[in-house]
Amino acid sequence: QVQLVESGGGLVQTGGSLRLSCAASGRAFSTCAMGWFRQAPGKEREFVAVISWSGHSTYYADSVKGRFTISRDNAKNTAYLQMNSLKPEDTAVYYCAAGATFNSDAYYLSRRQYNYWGQGTQVTVSS
After folding, report:
1. Are 12 and 86 in contact (CB under 8 A)?
2. Residues 80-116: pLDDT tens digits?
3. Which of 3, 10, 59, 110 has the most beta carbons within 10 angstroms of its beta carbon?
4. Burial class (CB in 10 A: 0-12, 13-18, 19+), 21
5. What does DSSP assign to residue 15?
6. Which 8-state DSSP code applies to residue 124?
7. Phi and psi for 52 in degrees, rounded to 5?
């Protein structure tokens, strides 16, 4: 069992930065791929970024590639999403998710493959 709590959201101007954190409880964290998703009003929840439990493999949505960086600290049971050069279209509720994998470098892109979800944190980028 893994419980996830996001933090770090807020209001920022276009071009600004935020760092989201996802604190996990439970020993399973270290064997879970960690993903970040976001959902804007009236839209489907979409994939943002993912990191394998080894930390060696990452993958980003094209819309955030080069601006966002995902990382994790297994000793602290925490995953992070560093968001730079923020745009108004990045405004959404951001969710972290954990999905157990059997391979240390594996990860998932589909939200259906994630077992555990946080409650979300609001990110608002003003123009």
Report:
1. yes
2. 999 999 999 999 999 999 998 888 999 999 999 999 9
3. 59
4. middle
5. T
6. E
7. -70, 165
CA distance 96 to 104: 19
pLDDT band at 1 (very low <50, low <70, confident <90, very high): confident
Q: Pairing relation of β-strands 46-51 and 32-39?
A: antiparallel
Contact assessment for residue 6 and residue 95, using Cβ atoms and an 8 Å cutoff: yes
Which residues, in sequence order, are CB contacts of 57 under 8 Å at separation 6+? 51, 105, 106, 107
Report how far Cα 101 is from the mean position of its chain's Cα atoms: 17
Cα–Cα distance, 63 to 58 (Å, whole number): 15
The answer, yes or no, to whether residue 27 has pLDDT greater than 80, is: no
Q: Which of 15, 45, 21, 16 is nearest to 34 (CA)?
A: 21
- The pairing of beta strand 121-126 with beta strand 10-13: parallel
Measured in residues, the chain has a length of 127
Q: Residue 29 has what pLDDT?
A: 83
